[in-house]
From TrEMBL:
Sequence ranges assigned to domain Mandelate racemase/muconate lactonizing enzyme C-terminal in this UniProt record: 143-235
Transmembrane segments annotated in the record for this chain: none
Gene encoding the protein: menC
Pfam families according to UniProt: MR_MLE_C, MR_MLE_N
Necessary cofactors: a divalent metal cation
Keyword Phosphoprotein: no
InterPro entries: Enolase-like_C_sf, Enolase-like_N, Enolase_C-like, Mandelate_racemase_C, Mandelate_racemase_N_dom, OSBS/NAAAR
Listed GO MF terms: O-succinylbenzoate synthase activity
Record protein name field: o-succinylbenzoate synthase
Length: 367
């Protein structure tokens, strides 16, 4: 298969509610759509869901735009491939830049499954018709504001609630949520904001009945994470630490965590995400699919991945309306009683709302 044309679009959408983490706050998202077109006119779409600033990872929208246009696009145009994994291998000569690669990889899977008339989830190895949806909530101005947010999402049926934490906003709000919602599966996400001097905070959180403590230490702190895991009953979940499958192999050997958050964007696409899933399952490590506030294209890819058998915990595949008043696809992702349907049609199962995308585009490039 050869790609005849590549289109990149920077698309900006406002968030319905400000989202704050340990490092920054955001009121809008700008992602890059990647369109791959073959000679016969078949198109596959992917999404580069990098943050605007270098806080979660080193990549930004600007860096992804440059790498996608100047380095990945020429490789993709020059590659003759039979399977999306072939294209992933060709792109591997570009070091890092996983978010940028993910947009092309998802577009390739979308194109490949569309041409073959196969649902994306089935092509990846998915076995479920529905996936359990969790929801991620940011840092709020007050504990009362946080409790209001949790109440709303629990009322909508979400099967798990994740709370963002940071030094100074951790034990007290988490205890308040746990006391108000004693039976709700609850976990916290630090985005690497803590260090070895914060062991007492981690031990206090350990007594809050949590499903997991996600990425308490910095991404490369795999040895300190292993030492912390030995001191906690609550499983540590690895997120930013795992950018490549080799990172997961190292973490498994060290015992740096007991749960894996697989993010399609962070790992460079669906191809490495499936490999990470398979390795985790081989070692008995539960996995779930994390999100980067994806628009409808990236969110559909996450839903398809979450249908794989190793995804035994609720994933961050909340409905599009959690983040956006209007999504870029004609059919938004919908959560009903905490479950999201896995499309049974060919490809991603979502079509772009081209008129809305056009109105929301801030820049465009075409090969």
């Amino acid at each position: 298969m050869k790609i005849k044309n590549i289109e990149l679009r920077r698309v900006r959408l406002p968030l319905v509610h400000q989202f704050r983490t340990s490092s920054h706050a955001k009121r809008h998202l700008e992602h890059i759509l990647v369109g791959l077109t073959t000679a016969d006119g078949t198109v596959g779409w992917g999404e580069i869901a990098s943050p605007s600033g270098p806080f979660f990872a080193a990549e930004t929208v600007d860096s992804c735009w440059a790498v996608a246009r100047d380095h990945l696009a020429p490789i993709v145009l020059a590659t003759d491939w039979d399977h999306p994994a072939d294209l992933a291998t060709a792109m591997a000569k570009v070091r890092g830049n996983q978010f940028a690669k993910a947009g092309f990889d998802v577009a390739a899977w979308s194109l490949w499954t569309t041409e073959r008339g196969v649902p994306l989830s089935k092509a990846l190895g998915g076995t479920r018709g529905h996936v359990e949806a969790g929801v991620s909530l940011g840092i709020e101005p007050t504990i009362d504001d946080l409790l209001e947010q949790v109440a709303g999402k629990v009322g909508e049926g979400y099967r798990r609630v994740k709370l963002k934490i940071a030094p100074g906003w951790d034990v007290e709000p988490v205890r308040a949520v746990r006391e108000a919602f004693p039976s709700v599966p609850l976990h916290v996400d630090a985005n690497g904001a803590y260090g070895e001097t914060h062991v007492n905070v981690m031990r206090a959180l350990d007594r809050c009945g949590l499903l997991m403590i996600e990425q308490p230490y910095a991404p490369r702190a795999l040895i300190p994470l292993a030492a912390l895991q030995d001191r906690l009953e609550t499983p540590i979940c690895l997120d930013e630490s795992i950018e490549e499958v080799d990172d997961l192999a190292t973490a498994l050997r060290l015992g740096s965590g007991r749960i894996l958050n697989i993010k399609v964007s962070r790992m460079g696409g669906l191809t490495p995400a499936v490999r990470a899933h398979d390795l985790a399952v081989e070692h008995g490590m539960p996995v779930w699919c994390g999100g980067m506030h994806e628009f409808g294209i990236g969110r559909a890819a996450n839903v398809a991945l979450s249908a794989l058998p190793g995804f035994t915990l609720p994933s961050d595949v909340s409905g599009s309306d959690k983040y956006y008043a209007r999504d870029i696809t004609t059919q938004p992702i919908v959560s009903v009683d905490g479950q999201v349907e896995v499309p049974a049609v060919a490809g991603l199962g979502r079509a772009l709302d081209f008129a809305f995308v056009q109105d929301s585009t801030t820049d465009r490039w075409q090969s």
